[in-house]
Amino acid sequence: MSSPALHSGPRRPADISAAFSSLSSPNQKYVFPHSFAQLKRKIWKDGLLQSWKEVLEELEVTAVRIAERGDSMIPRVTMESIRNGLSAEELSNIRTAGCVVVKGVLPKEALLTWKQDIRDYVAAHPGQVKGARFPSLISNLITYTEHRAGFPTGNVQVFELYNTVSQIRARTHPNVLETHRALLALWHDRSGDVSLDTPISYFDRLRIRIPGDSKFALGPHVDGGSVERWEDPEYRSCFNKILEGGSAWKEYDAYDAAPRAHAKQDLHEASSQCSIFRPWQGWTAMSSTGPGEGTLRVFPSLSIATAYWMLRPFFKPRDPSSTSLKWEDWNELDLDGPAFAGTGLGVGQEFSDATHPHLRLAQTMVSMPHVEPGDQVYWHCDMIHAVEGYHGGKGDASVMYIPAVPLTLENAQYLRDQRNNFLAGLPAPDFPAGPGESTFVGRATAEDVYPGGLGAMGLEKFGVEGNESKLFAEANRILAVA
Ligand SMILES: [Fe+2]
């Protein structure tokens, strides 16, 4: 097992616009070193031409299906079904879609109370709580939420808060950890380097989006790095079947954890990008919110979309002015240009009609169905997702970002740093540095962690001492460092 150092120090302060290429310089294409053309040629196999043809045909069929079925493509399960064990059909549906809504994970009343507690906490620290700066990806127009402190007078939608009692209670609640175990079990690991039944906590922000907001809008993108998926050999190996040629792409397994455990997702000092293996991104609803009310949108058919955008950099249209999406008009090889569509160095992977027209995003990005406080939404780490540009509802659209993350050695290193930051009231390591909540009255402490969640927070050893697995023993050694 290797254990590369993930974090040598705090992240540089930055806002999320730095993470998306077209936002920082909407009219300027990324300049890639020429070595990236060599990388393309190194990866290229003649059999990929056939793969590309098959993927384009399958993607066209999928797009029609999504347009017809809409949000019925998004599986829904209940906390009760999680507890009783998901059926084979439910598991299959979740794997295929790459996302799921879990109803009733936490009591509705608890979430409403926790949301009010967050509001009270913000109000008790006037001028001290920052709002995350998010740019709008729509039409490449750069707009930002105001970086103004306070609630509710400032136009803050996403708060730079990581250590509220509400977040800690939600992250470590027994039902949440049980849901994480169930969803991580959809993955498999042959390496022994990933403990899929050991969920750990990954601190993230929270959002309280007010009606009428059109500032917090994120266009279609995938997190977890961008060009690194081709550039890093370990990360690239996750997609071996897609890059093998012929019809091998059909055997692509999006739920193989082994190559992901050591993949390097950040080779270019990206800001505001998750640096660890996070199989399921997720959020917990703190409001009653439905389509049109500023919610999440996804492309609800994971593997075909992934196959498409992993193959896309190797091809270009024969006539750039043509709108044809036919394979015969799109089968010119692009092995001399170093660019990877929608990516850059140190930025996220983005999608638009200009860069990825075959996704037919206008008809394939589907909004999450109605959720109630206490429901959760999860989506695969390679899933194309976005946030509705406009919140047209009447109430707030509010979530806590809580992903499902397993224990690995690399993740244990991050957990150690995150735990130490938590105890000091600082932002989590992947997020903009600064004093955070270190001087705040009423921030969470270890006392607020549910007893069953101490391990997930890095506050308790994994396994039975003297009889741990090799992974647990090494993780415990890592976590012992203060
Ligand atoms: Fe995202």
How does this structure look, described?
The structure is a single chain. With 482 residues, the protein is of the alpha+beta class. It has one domain (16-406): B-lactam Antibiotic, Isopenicillin N Synthase, Chain (Jelly Rolls), CATH 2.60.120.330. It is 28% helix and 11% strand. It contains 14 helices and 16 strands. It has helices at 21-24, 35-43, 48-69, 79-84, 88-97, 108-123, 165-172, 174-184, 228-231, 233-237, 302-311, 361-364, 409-424, 470-479; strands at 76-78, 99-103, 158-159, 195-200, 206-209, 221-222, 280-285, 296-298, 315-316, 332-333, 349-350, 366-367, 376-380, 385-387, 397-401, 405-407. The strands form five sheets. It has a seven-stranded mixed beta sheet with strand order 1-2-13-7-15-5-3. It has a three-stranded antiparallel beta sheet with strand order 12-8-14, with no helix packed on it. A two-stranded antiparallel ribbon has the order 4-16. The longest helix has 22 residues, at 48-69. The model is unreliable at 1-28 and 134-153 (pLDDT under 50). Residues 221, 223, 385 line the site of fe (ii) ion (FE2).
Percentage of residues in helical conformation: 25-40%
- Which molecules are bound in this entry? fe (ii) ion
Gross geometry: globular
Order of helices and strands: HHHEHHEHEHHEEEHHEEHEEEHEEEEEHH
In CATH terms, the superfamily is B-lactam Antibiotic, Isopenicillin N Synthase, Chain
What is the strand content?
Answer: 5-15%
Helical/strand content category: alpha+beta
Q: How are the strands of the biggest sheet laid out side by side? A: 1-2-13-7-15-5-3
Radius of gyration: 22 Å
Number of domains: 1
Number of helices: 14
